[in-house]
Design brief:
The protein is of the alpha/beta class. Helices cover 49% and strands 12% of the residues. It folds into 2 domains: 2-225, Spore Coat Polysaccharide Biosynthesis Protein SpsA, Chain A (Alpha-Beta Complex); 230-320.
């Protein structure tokens, strides 16, 4: 088995000379081949030079320099695209994740799981700005996604390569990869991991990231429930709006016929028209989204399903129903 350790780096010049030796010390004890992929996400503090020094000292340390700061998710996606391992293990570059947990993640993976997610049970971060928002976010994500994890924000995880081969990450979606995996039928385990306080450098996380995560969560929820059937999603809203328009219209007529209340003396006729037009627009939006969805799948020969394994299936057929 070959391992790929994936580390996004942004302004961690003090930590890089400590990170690489710590990783190599652990990985050199492993029976597996490995590579360490460090992605410089547009650092401006001298991290670029420190990364080049690390790469020159060991050929198994590989460095990718991005042209500017694209964000942690994009940096992780770059690492995934260039990884060659059978197991991919992302982690932070600030030394708060412990390299000694890597063998423990692999041991748990060997029990038959596809994803092992780290859980920083004793997290060494500020309570108000980091830990409390994280607790709330993890609870909300677990409820909305149906995938119960204690710590979605922990970067340290282990994935079998097949789980990530067709994943495309945007925004802040790197933390939601276990959700993608679960929707594809992956077996997911959670493992308590060590977490160290930051000793060097400055944290890049803050409360401003919470809103981005919540918006990405809304998108994830929509993609899970309606991505391949958008007409059902928008159509239900449209029909509900049209139905409500009919009720308000009948109410206005009832007031007019039985109580001699003029149409112009109540907002009901205007509200009826607003609901009717909104309903029609939602139905049309569903039709447009349905057409776009079909173009997306058919232009790329994608399927609406994924295959776990097959038995006694001819080669030509197995190529048609390959995992997407």
């Amino acid at each position: 088995m070959r391992l790929s350790i994936l580390v996004p780096i942004y302004n961690e010049v003090e930590n890089i000379p400590l990170l690489c030796p710590a990783l190599l010390e652990v990985l050199n004890r492993s029976p597996h081949e490995f590579e360490i992929i460090l992605v410089n996400d547009g650092s401006t503090d001298g991290s670029s030079e420190a990364l080049d020094v690390a790469a020159a000292s060991d050929s198994r340390v590989r460095v990718i320099h991005l042209r500017r700061n694209f964000g942690q998710t994009a940096a992780l996606m770059a690492a995934i695209d260039h990884a060659t391992g059978d197991v991919l293990i992302p982690m932070d570059g600030d030394l708060q994740n412990d390299p000694e947990d890597i063998p423990r993640l692999l041991a748990k993976l060997d029990e038959g799981y596809d994803v092992v997610s780290g859980w920083r049970k004793n997290r060494k971060d500020k309570a108000v700005t980091r830990r409390l928002p994280s607790i709330v976010a993890n609870w909300l994500i677990s409820k909305l996604s149906g995938v119960a994890l204690h710590d979605y924000g922990c970067t340290l995880k282990a994935y079998r390569r097949s789980i990530l081969e067709n994943v495309r990450l945007y925004g802040e979606m790197h933390r939601f990869v276990p959700i993608y995996a679960a929707w594809e039928g992956a077996e997911i385990a959670e493992l308590e991991v060590n977490h160290h306080p930051r000793r060097l450098g400055v944290s890049k996380y803050g409360l401003g990231r919470v809103t981005k995560v919540m918006l990405d969560l809304v998108l994830i929820r929509f993609m899970h429930t309606a991505f391949d059937r958008p007409m059902h999603f928008f159509g239900k809203i449209g029909l509900a709006s049209i139905g409500l328009a009919g009720l308000t219209g009948l109410w206005a007529v009832w007031l007019k016929m039985l109580h001699q209340v003029s149409f112009i003396s109540t907002p009901l006729p205007m509200f009826t028209m607003f609901l009717m037009l909104s309903g029609i627009l939602f139905v049309l939006l569903g039709l447009m989204a349905e057409l776009q969805m079909r173009v997306y799948y058919e232009s790329q020969s994608k399927r609406h399903y994924s295959v776990k394994k097959m038995s006694n299936v001819a080669l030509e057929h197995s190529e048609i129903v390959r995992v997407n």
